[in-house]
Amino acid sequence: MTAALYDVAALRAIETQASARSDDASALMRRAGQGAWRVLLDRWPAAGALLVACGPGNNGGDGYVLARHARQSGRDVAVVRVAAHAPRGELAMRACADYLEAGGRVVEFVDGELPPADVVVDALFGIGLARAPDESLSALIAAINRHPAPVFALDVPSGVDAVRGSAPGVSVRAQRTVEFIAPKMSLRTGIARDLCGALQVDTLDLDPAAFDVAASAECLRPSDLWRWLAPRRRDSHKGEHGRVLCVGGEHGHGGAILLAAEAALRSGAGLVDVVTRLPHVVALLARLPEAMAHAHADDADALDAHFIEAADVVMIGPGLGQGAWGATLFDQTLQAGKPAVLDADALNLLAAKPRRLPADTILTPHPGEAARLLGIDTGAVQRDRFDVAQRLAERHDAVVVLKGAGSIVAAPGRTPRLVDAGNPGMAVGGMGDVLAGVIAALRAQGLDAFDAASCGALLHAAAGDAAARESGERGLLPTDLMPWLRRLANPELPT
Ligand SMILES: NC(=O)C1=CN([C@@H]2O[C@H](COP(=O)(O)OP(=O)(O)OC[C@H]3O[C@@H](n4cnc5c(N)ncnc54)[C@H](O)[C@@H]3O)[C@@H](O)[C@H]2O)[C@@H](O)CC1
Ligand SMILES: [K+]
User: Fold this and answer.
1) How far is the CA of 94 from the centre of ligand 1 (A)?
2) R_g of the chain computed on alpha carbons
3) Looking at this predicted complex, what is its ipTM?
């Protein structure tokens, strides 16, 4: 079963349901602080000296509970806090009082460096962060990040806005984060994915009935691939595995369309046609004789209608350019209304001249292309990735794969999906071309647009992870994914 992810509103609803079943308001905080202490002990058993940075709300309260357990276990503990942000809420004040009563020590942070410690626990802010940290908090966060000890964040690395998954100001960079109650969708995409370090969830032993809240997103892991990639029928033929038309590769960009075509074949497309510039045809056939490559020479020439008629799916964009050649091919390719995958310059052409797209078109923008499509800047895309993916899907009535760390698949009226795989080695030219080819091949093999986009993004990320495990992230090339696409597109094979 795939894992459910939640937004902050859903988490608050779960918390409310759980609290309504208990007459002890502080029970959840006690479990959170104690659970986090157990994680710390498990992860850093030799840690003798701890610094616990506590904020004014319930996240700080969790920190005081942890600090009390650590102290009662004989560790050398100090709570660090900014004087102006001492505990405010009733629960946090009580947790602080219990810590002090147990002989706990509090250090007021003014500026400069923190004292030595084996682990720094970050309990400044959790899901309640309401704005960018002020100057004094920013100085404390910067000192935490400079500290040589590993940083262990409670619920959310402080400074990350858990509603949107971005950081409005300075943020703690954790080595490990323990989330309370349920996994948050926002922490698994964009910059938050980096700031959290390793993520783990503590459900606080809540009654399962408290989780009677709809998931806000669905988390896709490589083990989900079998959902969409059943073994083939023994009597199937190439026509049943779909024919993909790949259009692109303006002068100087022949590699992009080659990568897309090869990825489509390695992901199981039965037949692949490529329409590209004449000089690329020779190179393409030399590397990939299985593709059927056709030269499209003149800017104004009509594309041979046969290619489009024969295709089950058209994939346009890699290396297409935005000149007359690309723009004419873009118009002609979309005219027949075939299922389409639009990538790269096809997205830029769409941004420049919005148009009605064939039903169930798949768009695969990176953040820059998404920004152009919405007329906003790239920073605004990254500040709220789930929202942007959904808005884009609704604006174009299309399926959208918003690429980047933690790719998001969105479609109108559907619960979004998050791809929990992939690595920074994949941030290299040509990776997106591979993704477009993979998605087109899966669509041609009969998956609907939302599933083809989901399965394709997952297969691509999992292949990238497998290739990185083999030889590392730095220097990873899109062509390194090809054997892994094939391997992982057959999940019935023993691992
Ligand atoms: N949701 C739950 O069921 C549970 C929550 N717990 C903890 O409680 C946290 C949420 O608690 P809260 O809602 O109190 O939120 P936080 O503790 O995250 O912070 C809210 C407090 O910080 C202040 N604040 C927000 N942004 C600020 C800023 N930039 N500068 C200065 N002050 C700022 C607010 O005014 C408020 O006092 C969770 O993240 C988790 O750690 C746990 O105790 C366990 C149960
Ligand atoms: K925190």
Assistant:
1) 15
2) 26
3) 0.97
